[in-house]
Write a structure and sequence with these properties.
Strand order of the largest sheet: 1-3-2
Distance between the termini: 33 Å
CATH class of the largest domain: Mainly Alpha
Number of helices: 9
Largest sheet: 3 strands, antiparallel
Number of domains: 2
Strand content: under 5%
């Protein structure tokens, strides 16, 4: 089984939870989900386990699975952990930056500024940050960042091209890029923290 199937299912279900299409208390049925996504039960089971690990769903006494959703406190807790580890990754990567890392991040940022598809926008944002962190030399830290990113994704559909939200996002990315290019860790970390802060309210 291709594990990417489970990841795609998780992404769709997380978005449904975020948008309120799957509300807290709703029981998820493997058969229904398998039919919806046109897959066997195996990737559905894997997706449910991933959602359980992130706290988005919970196992009930009768062994069924229900939607938990995300609370404001849960988002704050997640943000605190993400800020801590992404700040560490950026700090470790800073002395090891190569021109190609910054070049890649700049190129991706140019795409971000014109991209219209929310899912593609999400992918580009992940690639942007990965380009800045990948030189940190800690593969486990990078995997953890990727896992935490999956738990609470910014509502990219609320940042259409030309909107104030997209303009602010791009401005924050550009400031982060300038600080990284100057190898100014203090300004880069501050820019990253400012960039991540709105996630607790999305």
């Amino acid at each position: 089984m291709d594990p990417r199937l489970a990841v795609e299912i998780v992404r769709d279900l997380e978005e449904d939870i975020r948008q309120g299409r799957l509300q807290a208390g709703l029981v998820l049925r493997q058969e229904s989900l398998a039919t919806r996504f046109g897959v066997s039960r195996q990737p559905v089971r894997m997706a449910i386990e991933m959602l359980r690990a992130s706290g988005a769903v919970a196992l009930r006494r009768d062994r069924s699975v229900e939607v938990v959703g995300s609370s404001a406190q849960g988002r704050r807790d997640l943000l605190a952990v993400r800020t801590l580890i992404e700040r560490e990754a950026l700090t470790l990567a800073m002395p090891c930056f190569e021109d190609r890392d910054l070049l890649k991040a700049r190129h991706v940022q140019e795409q971000i500024e014109i991209e219209r598809d929310p899912k593609r926008l999400e992918e580009l944002d992940c690639v942007f940050h990965s380009a800045l962190y990948q030189s940190c030399g800690n593969a486990r830290l990078l995997r953890l960042i990727e896992e935490l990113r999956r738990e609470d994704r910014r509502p990219y559909h609320e940042q259409p091209v030309g909107s104030p939200a997209r303009a602010l996002w791009s401005k924050q990315h550009r400031k982060l890029l300038r600080a990284c290019a100057a190898r100014d860790a203090a300004i880069a970390v501050a820019a990253l923290e400012t960039h991540l802060a709105p996630l607790q309210t999305t």
